[in-house]
């Protein structure tokens, strides 16, 4: 497999009427929950984000300042995900129920789907099977309406995905709130 390319250094490009309005779109400040034990290093994505602050979030690990009740991103390493599904299922389901109130919500898994579906070398004391874990993720995605984003065990790639998702989620919200529609560029998907 080829090495991943580095993230872009440019801002997210937004145009209206053939002209760039990128500079008019404020860059968001990401909030990281105070209980996040191994927080992502998102400060390096200054092309997309204006800063990172620590705050106590009611639900989730990451949000956007001023949008704490609109945007919720829950991060799970593969080890944490398996442990949560095996030992803290009830608590996790209650969290997913709370996440349903957020218009923009997702679970970001620090693993590819192939890694979720492969035998685990860290579950000696837990009878976790990859089919059970992947099936649980499918079920809770449908039951609670919380999308699951599979990323990578490569932390830098997972951080990039989180920063990109948070930035784009904010940008689409901002454009809509300004009456500019839900597109980045005319002719966009």
UniProtKB/TrEMBL annotation:
Segments traversing the membrane: none
Family annotation (CDD domains): XPF_ERCC4_MUS81-like
GO molecular function, one term: DNA binding
Boundaries of every ERCC4 domain copy: 29-113
InterPro entries in alphabetical order: ERCC4_domain (IPR006166), Restrct_endonuc-II-like (IPR011335)
Cited Gene3D superfamilies: 3.40.50.10130
GO terms under biological process: DNA metabolic process
A Pfam cross-reference name: ERCC4
Domain of life per record: Bacteria
Identification of the protein by name: ERCC4 domain-containing protein
Organism: Duganella vulcania
């Amino acid at each position: 497999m080829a090495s991943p390319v580095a993230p872009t250094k440019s801002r997210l490009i937004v145009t209206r009427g053939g002209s760039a309005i990128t500079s008019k779109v404020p860059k968001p400040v990401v909030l990281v929950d105070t209980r996040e034990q191994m927080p992502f290093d998102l400060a390096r994505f200054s092309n997309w984000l204006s800063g990172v602050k620590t705050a106590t979030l009611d639900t989730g690990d990451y949000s956007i300042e001023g949008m704490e009740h609109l945007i919720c991103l829950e991060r799970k390493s593969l080890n944490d995900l398996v442990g949560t599904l095996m030992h803290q299922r009830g608590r996790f389901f209650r969290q997913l129920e709370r996440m349903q109130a957020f218009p923009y919500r997702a679970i970001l898994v620090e693993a590819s789907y192939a890694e979720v579906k492969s035998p685990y070398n860290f579950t000696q004391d837990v009878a976790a099977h990859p089919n059970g874990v992947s099936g649980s993720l499918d079920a809770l995605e449908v039951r609670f309406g919380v999308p699951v984003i599979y990323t990578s065990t490569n932390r830098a790639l997972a951080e990039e995905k989180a920063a990109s998702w948070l930035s784009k989620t904010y940008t689409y919200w901002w454009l809509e709130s300004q009456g500019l529609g839900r597109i980045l560029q005319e002719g966009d998907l």
